Amino acid sequence: MSSTSKVNTPSPVAADIQWSTEPPMQPGAYWFQCEPTSRAMLLDVRMKDGAMMVWWPNDDQPVEKLKGRWRGPIPPSSGLGSR
Question: What percent helix, strand, coil does the chain show, rounded to 5?
């Protein structure tokens, strides 16, 4: 494999995803950060009964109830280990 391989090069789509305080409007994997100093966690946002929901902390919660920053949806990986 040459050193010019694009296996470890981030997708332009993933690199362009910005943080937002607006809750997700479509299903997918999102990074969520409660506070700027806290660690971001990956959450699975899904549609349930007509509302965007996440499992937080031990129950389904509407994304609108979570105050913080969102980044996503995260596109699926196409690199090694995604098979």
Answer: 10, 30, 60
